[in-house]
Amino acid sequence: MSFEKGFLFGKRSFKEKQDDLVKEHVKGDFATLNPKNADPDYVWDNWVTPLTEYAAPITSFENYLTEKIRASKEKIRVLDIGIGGGSQWKDFVKENDFEFWGTALSETFEPSLKGKVKICRASELHSFFKENYFDVIVSSFGMHDEELVGIENAVYLLKPGREAFFKMETALRSFEARDHYDLLAEEALFENGKQFGVAIRIKKH
Ligand SMILES: C[S@@+](CC[C@H](N)C(=O)[O-])C[C@H]1O[C@@H](n2cnc3c(N)ncnc32)[C@H](O)[C@@H]1O
Question: Is the pTM of this model over 0.85?
C-alpha cells in the first residue's frame, strides 16, 4: 500500500487537529522548543537525552531495546525520529548487534552515526524507508509540529505486531487509532507541576 496522509487520524480534520496540537505546544512550558522562538543550533542539534529516559515514564527504553535485540534471532531494525545530538546512541550502536537508523534536520550530529542518519522531516519518512521495515521506532521530542503525520509515517514503517514509543510536547491526548494499533500506554509529562507533553506506547496490528 502506498502512504496516504490522514490514514490514521482522518483527512478532513487533519489540519485542524495538527493546528490544535501546535497551539497546545506553544502554550506549554517547552514553548522555547518552537523553532520560531529559539536558537535552532541549541534546540535542534545539541539535544541529547539518555536512552534510559527516551520512553520515560513508560519504560526504560535502553532496557526494552537490549531485551528485544537479545531475544531476536534476526538483526532487528530500529528507527529514532529526530536524534538531536545523537551521542546518546554512540556506545549502544557500537556495543549491540542491530540495524540502526536515525533522522535529523541537519548534518550536525554524532560523527560515528554518519551513513545511518537520513536528513528528513517526520512527515517525509515514507519516502526514505520501506513500509513494514522496522521492528522498533522511537521518537523523543523529534516530530515537532508534525506529531500526527509523524505517527502515521511511523505506523506505516513499523512491522505488524511491533511497537513504537513517542514523546511529544502536547497536552492533547487523542492518539487512539483503533483500526491500526493498540495504545498500550499513555502518560502525561509534567514539569514544575504543569503538563508539557505526553508519552505513548503503541503496538501496530
Ligand atoms: C528536542 S531534539 C530531541 C533529540 C533527541 N531525540 C532527544 O530526545 O534527546 C529534536 C530533534 O528532532 C528533530 N526534529 C524536530 N522536529 C522534527 C520534525 N518535524 N521532523 C523531523 N525531525 C524533527 C530535530 O532536528 C532534532 O534532531
Answer: yes
**Strand intervals (E) in the chain:** 77-80, 99-104, 117-119, 134-140, 158-168, 181-191, 194-204
Mutational test site, ligand 1, from 29, 41, 61, 83, max ligand atoms within 8 Å of CB: 83
- Show the domains of the chain with their CATH numbers: 14-204 (3.40.50.150)
Ligand 1 centroid to Cα of residue 124, in Å, is 14
d(CA 44, ligand 1 centre) in Å: 6
Upper half-sphere CA count for residue 11 (Cβ side, 13 Å): 4
Question: Which residue carries 554518519 as its cell?
Answer: 114
Positive/negative CA dihedral, 157, 161, 163, 169: positive
pLDDT in tens, 46-76: 789 999 999 999 999 999 999 999 999 999 9
